[in-house]
Amino acid sequence: MESLTDLQLALKETLAKEGIHVAINRLKERLPGNGPRYNDLILLTTRLREIERDQVRNLLAPEEAQRQFSRLRADLLQLIDELQESDFVPASDRRRGRQGRLLYQIPTTMQLYQETKCLVRLAFREEWLLKKLDLSDDTKIQSVRISEVMEIDLLDPNDAPAFGIRAVSSKEQFVEEEDYTEWLFYVKPLRVGRFPLLLKVTVIEQVKGQERQRDIVLEELVEVLAVISEAGAAPLKSAGCRLELGPAPNLTESGSGRRGEDPGRVVEEQKEDYTDTSSTRGQGPTWYRIVVTALAALFVIGGVSYAALPGFREAISWRYAKWQDDRKCYEQFIRAYPRSDRLPEARERLEDLQWQEVMRDTAIAPLQRFLAQYPDGEHSPEGRRLLEFQLWESAKTDSTGALLFDYLQRYPDGEHAKEAQGRLYALPSFQMPMNEGEPDSLAPIPGSVPLDTLQGSMPLSGPRFRDPRDGQIYPFVEVDGTVWMAANLNYQSSGSFCYVDDSTYCAQFGRLYTWEAAQRACPPGWNLATPADWDALIASFGGTETRQAELATFETLLWGGDSGLKLQLGGSRFATHHYWNMGDYGRYWTTGEYIYYNFDGSMGPGTGLISKHQGGAHLSEVGYSCRCVKGR
Q1: What is the pTM of this model?
Q2: Cα–Cα distance between 604 and 563 in angstroms, integer?
Q3: How do the domains of the chain map onto residue ranges?
Q4: CATH class of the domain defined by 93-225
């Protein structure tokens, strides 16, 4: 067994030869994650990232950056010298669990047949529970024993089912040390009345080398109410934006309207066709205009029509949209009155209604469209968690490996990333097209090539090219007459590097090249993409003129889009020999002197940014990714 002295000497040698990043990671591997020394390493890592970030943003002069790196290196040496044998002994509370906090939101009142969100969180500290959370009267917090792995479930204990329960997240999850862990359920009441709903919290611990479980069961009484309709009214149906027969609502709104506005002009200009395939629902917008116009015509006092007052038709339209509470009504109101003071409320309600439609559908495509439309919306965080869950549910039943690759491309650090990698390893050898001249001819990938040597962006079919220099295989696609490699270049040459000097990352994300090395890195017959190549590529998929177009282009080029290129967020190598931003940024060199394109996915799917940068000689030792195009 290695002595403490030998370990300290080895760590110092690693620091001198391989740098701060590698030394910190080596020490992290030895220390228990709940010890004070591990926390010291987290602080050092944070300082290191801040220095590197400020350096990239040109906020630090080279001399000041070197001084800060020197101080950081000295602090790490001091920590290594102060290590004790006890620092490497796991704390007992990590093995047997310790006290933490449980938060749950289970509404005590629900509507019949309407899904209601129920949320559960666990954390070791209460302030972590409350991050990004809207508190309500249904929020409850209590102390509970927490272990490294916990299981949460919602159960219907009634003899005759009273609830349909849909779990969005995995029931068994690893509990984060310095953050909350969340479970999400959707509960649909099936009967009217008061019924119990059970929250089961399972503590999973290792006792004398064996896994043991202990259950904590909490009961909540839920009152289920029938949907109340206005007395005597015919049932309301979703029929575009249309009024069903029945008692008319109060459509007047005192004090509404704005001066100087033609109240009916924009409404009269609407030409959209909302024709429904149902014979009973085909006249939605016609009804909308008839109702609004007729109601306006009725309000005549002393020969003066209220319809002539500024803002009157807008007020009537708004009251009618709220009464119908239908997506198409809100959409029509927004189009008709784009400068209305009611626009924020209309858009907020429209987002809520679209989210409800997404939750009823539970398909992947509508959810992706919703996230693209509302990247920063109220429901976006929940939507992104749900999207990952749905993609994983699809991927884990896929026998080809394509969806597993897709999941890892999107979520390299996702909750199921390790299991996805394991499933890929278990798959048999693939049969893939090899001869670019005969795309239908198949040749097997040698069984000796492990799956992690294939780039995560590599499609499982299509034409491919073999680099004669090292035998590596690259897929390629044609976009508007230009043939692009569909994987990041991974040719080992002087001035090229693997992320954190780990060859596994080269296999998955390609190598990082200095600008000078990138100019000569492409295979014979291929060239490094020029700025004009990148500009044309981006324009081919929608460009970046508007934010919506930029998001669509980003989604198409990355995140498993259908362009076939699957650009990757492979991170960077700094001149200080440190690595940063894998999974957040993908930067690609061009033939232009220190010109590179940056794809920013740091905020997750639905939030991508694309930008072009002109650097200088200070980037001469920086490492970015490369894509090659076939010589013309």
Answers
A1: 0.34
A2: 19
A3: 4-90, 93-225, 265-359, 429-630
A4: mainly beta
